[in-house]
Amino acid sequence: MISSKSAVLAPAPRAAPLEPAPATADTATTDAATTSSSSNGSDPASEDAKKSESYSEDMQKKMGTTLTYRHELGLNYNRILPDIIVGSCLQTPADVDHLADKEGVRTVFCLQEDSDMAYFSLDVKPIQARCEERGDIKHVRFPIRDFDPFDLRRKLPKAVARLAREHKPSEGTIYIHCTAGLGRAPATALAYMFWLRGQKLDEAYELLRGKRMCSPRIEAIRSATVDLLVGTEPVMATIAVSRLGTTTDFKAGWGGRRLQWRGVAGLDVGWHVQLPLEPEKGTGRLVLRRMLQPGTYPYKFVVDGNWTYSADHPTIKDGNNINNILEVMGRSVPEHLAFAQQRLLAPGGDLTEQERAELRGMLCPWDSHRGVHPPGPEADGPDGFIVGEDWTDKLP
């Protein structure tokens, strides 16, 4: 049960804005921000600035980060590898020209949903038209839901396969972006580096974070890796709390107010949806039961309209934010697969050469990446055959 001492209201901390980095080969240039900002014609007092503040507060609460996003400042990006840039969203056709002419970008890989663009009143059509007009840069969309680690986990394999199909490392740079370039975009770049570029996940994570302040969901990548290589089936998971909090005054931290349980946010539905806690007959508990794939799921309780965590349930600290965490174990699998699953989900867990070959076969059978694949066995697909492009349609 959640006691008066263990129910802790965890408001998102405020933080300094993410400013454009100094101009170096590995960081976003101040010219990039100036170009986009001036062409957008906005200033810190504009409507965009107000929306940025609201977006940042939402991001801090749902991602457990102290980072902020300043849309009104224009493009903000960092070069992670010689052929990979991760950054914020393009806002005008002039941003296309800047990336193509100044950074050698040949592919823009957009992870935004239409609703993301609508929030900041962005029109993607002029950006796409400018790419088509130039002819030396293409615009590719692969929407992933913002602030939703499960949607990220589910879509990462196809996102990486699409990225690999569109990107030719020897012919130019790919610009991977979401809205702020702090969650979905770095996570997609990280999965690509891990699955197809021969890097260890934790080392690639440190490399990426050393280049760009961001908060990619590394646990979503670990879970997606297991989904691809081991295969997972949903199992029933349960979260339960005492109903005591619905009728008892909490003196510590709640001002003596009566509390009403609303539900749980996070898990597989992301932070946009609240799953209800239902009374359990005969126990006096409030319970949420849900079929979930094996993996690690962050969540928060919603109590009296406030987002809170319980110290009586497992927690994880992400920056200055604390979430509860649910570990879902899979059904029994053959011993060798169980060991592989345990290894891949653990911090520091790496792929074997054969697993890397399997991932190359599933996600990138195209000749464009033969020169950047790490040495190892042939990139065979499932059952030892070289896969065709339509295999990606069968990915989870």
Automatic annotation (TrEMBL):
GO biological process: starch catabolic process
Ranges of Low complexity composition bias in the record: 10-44
Region (Disordered): 1-59, 373-396
Keywords of the record: Carbohydrate metabolism, Hydrolase, Protein phosphatase
Keyword Hydrolase carried by entry: yes
The UniProt record lists the keyword Hydrolase: yes
Listed Basic and acidic residues bias regions: 47-59
Chain ranges of the Tyrosine-protein phosphatase domain: 76-234
InterPro entries the record matches: AMPK1_CBM, DSP_laforin-like, Dual-sp_phosphatase_cat-dom, Ig-like_fold, Ig_E-set, Prot-tyrosine_phosphatase-like, Starch-Glucan_Phosphatase, Tyr_Pase_dom
Pfam families cross-referenced by the UniProt entry: AMPK1_CBM, DSPc
Domain Tyrosine specific protein phosphatases: residue ranges: 154-212
GO terms for cellular component: chloroplast
GO terms, molecular function: carbohydrate phosphatase activity; phosphoprotein phosphatase activity; starch binding
Protein name: Tyrosine specific protein phosphatases domain-containing protein
